[in-house]
């Protein structure tokens, strides 16, 4: 029999510490929609999404009521459109039409984001992939709920520097096209290395070609719960600290597992994975930065930050892995800047820099995330930053990502406002020295050697 | 058997248990266990109930209990027991 204190503990986590199920994401394969005619393709895509995900939002809300826990987002990921549209699209405009269709479908089923306007080009780009990538600025500025991602590298294949160079330009153009809203288009665009096929989190979610027809992936979150648990072990040893994080991560993940199983049962769609994540929001007490502070740092960015984050990330995984039958996605602590009040405070205090964030991405999921940078940052500099981050992922056999927002018309000292879950962000300085000659080289960075590790 | 946990929290007054139990009886919901304390004037009750036999949907029960709560100045929540089991039992 469950005890009173256990009931209290669970409800306290939900009510006071912001424990929630961050997202139920339905992955939908669009491979069987492929058609040489664009109009037919769009109709098939729409029918498939509405057919499978028509009840997704209601189901998510119902589960939330049954267990008394908020299911914050209901979302959809689809097969990379670079593949799906290859037979039908002859121009960038053709791809943009698909994006608009996806946006309409997302609105009709009521999900707040749909991911998968993507290209997987780790080794090379097909002509369709290149068209899709060039169409991203237009697609993101003409849609509201569509998210885009491009995988430009992997540990097995190396880094496609042609794609990296192109993405620097794509990010800049996306920023310019959405300049009137603080370049928010870039918040819906992620560049990946080693992108997972089953990530439920936006903006980088897509339904990989290794996946089944449809699948339910769930992302849980609860940085506030971890922070609260750590308050009770201030000054204790690392052993106690790590045990506390593990136990808390286990409990959080169990809720994700329960919700994922229930959603899969109710929707008649197989359960895929639970993403073991600490995903912050701008809400007070829902911050990964505050956990790092509780571990003992004045602000994230202070010496010791990388070690503290490595410890946190690893313990979250250790605790979470046993709590779920299948773990996948990005799994780890996220360190977006604009979505985490503690990170924003650290930047404003002058403690956290882009370079330190880059170091932090070596030991956590996922990468340079939701960072506002000056609007005059060049495409080449963006590509250089992307290349650095991709190299970290490639060499360390982990997923890394870049979601940078060059805020057009604003500079260091100013602030970008995105609103809602995306939050706001102080604009951070970027190293002003050039890397044009490096970025302008064509071809690929070869895959790294997998022996002689040091 | 579909078990749920009801929690009732609020300022203590006459008839809280009576009101909640009457609603449950009228809805054909069997009570399996009750525990209740008062700390600093605040009433705190937990019940384990069986909701499978009720003709009402879980959503309706949840809403109506919320309404009952409003009439007695308490917050009443009902949650399926699985969430507690999953979190606290391996």
Commentary on this structure:
The complex is a heterodimer of chains A (454) and B (90). Chain A has 15 helices and 15 strands. Chain A is of the alpha/beta class. In chain A, strands 1, 2, 3, 4, 5, 6, 7, 8, 11, 12 and 15 form an eleven-stranded mixed β-sheet that branches. In chain A, helix 2 runs parallel beside helix 5 (92-109). Chain A is globular and about 65 Å long. Chain A starts with a helix and ends in a 9-residue tail after the last strand. By secondary structure, chain B is of the alpha+beta class. Chain B has one domain: Alpha-Beta Plaits, CATH 3.30.70. Chain B has three helices and four strands. Chain B has helices at residues 16-26, 58-72, 82-88, and strands spanning 3-11, 30-39, 42-50, 74-80. Chain B has a four-stranded antiparallel β-sheet with strand order 2-3-1-4, sandwiched between helices. In chain B, 31% of the residues are buried. The interface between A and B is medium-sized, with 19 and 21 residues.
Rough outline of chain A: globular
The total count of helices of chain A amounts to 15
SS strand fraction of chain A: 15-25%
Q: Give the class of chain B from helix and strand content and strand pairing.
A: alpha+beta
For the biggest β-sheet of chain B, the strand order reads 2-3-1-4
Cα separation of the termini of chain A: 51 Å
Q: What CATH first level of chain B would be assigned? A: Alpha Beta
How many helix segments of chain B? 3
- Topology of chain A as a string of helices (H) and strands (E): HEHHEHHEHEEHEEHHEEHHEHHEHEEEHE
Low-confidence stretches of chain B: none
Order of helices and strands of chain B: EHEEHEH
> How many β strands of chain A by DSSP?
15
The tally of strands of chain B reads: 4
